[in-house]
Amino acid sequence: MNAKSELMKEKILNAVIELFTEKGIDKVKTRDVTEYLGLSRSHIYHYFKDWQSLSLAAVTSFINAEIKEFRLIIQPLSARQKLQEFIKGMITDAPDPTRKLYGSLWLLSTHDEAYASLMQTFLDEWHEVLANIIQTGMDEQSFRIVDVHRVARQLDAMLFGYSEQILTLPSKGLVEQAKEDIDDFIHRNILTC
């Protein structure tokens, strides 16, 4: 594919990502993309074989970029700071526009194998980010020696559970409760004194 074609493909993907973030994956149709970009439907499908392949490519592009950006942000930080950034990315009282995209991806993954496979890949990647943070903390001797993947799974479960609850029933009280519970878990299971 030549450079001009790559630019157009990227433009389409970015538009789809913006629409998914704004509305959720399941609420966006080809017509929305054509109107947003001022392109014909056939022009879009010149670059993607069908709607699902376009949607999967857009979600993959978005989440890969998000993981890459997060890794760059935390790279110079201590393990404790990295862990706080990871938590802050999931437990917040500020509205997160990407939650619609993640939420609709989660729902689609319950009944579509392609989305389920994609979701599992991203969950595994985020788990590895968290496990690497914990391992770094152990190497720095600021975290206890623990079963890295087990503790990462436990913390992942807490973070995802609270994150979904906050998304569904947002309140400052719930956010504070989540932060306190997660902080307690970290102090009891991860941090050295």
UniProtKB/TrEMBL annotation:
Residues 6-66 form the HTH tetR-type domain. GO terms for molecular function: DNA-binding transcription factor activity; transcription cis-regulatory region binding. Pfam families: TetR_C_6, TetR_N. Transmembrane segments: none annotated. InterPro entries: BetI_C, Homeodomain-like_sf, HTH-type_TetR-like_transc_reg, HTH_TetR, Tet_transcr_reg_TetR-rel_C_sf. Residues 29-48 bind DNA. The keyword Cell inner membrane does not apply. Keywords: DNA-binding, Plasmid, Repressor, Transcription, Transcription regulation. It comes from the Bacteria. PANTHER family: HTH-TYPE TRANSCRIPTIONAL REGULATOR BETI, HTH-TYPE TRANSCRIPTIONAL REGULATOR RUTR. This is TetR/AcrR family transcriptional regulator.
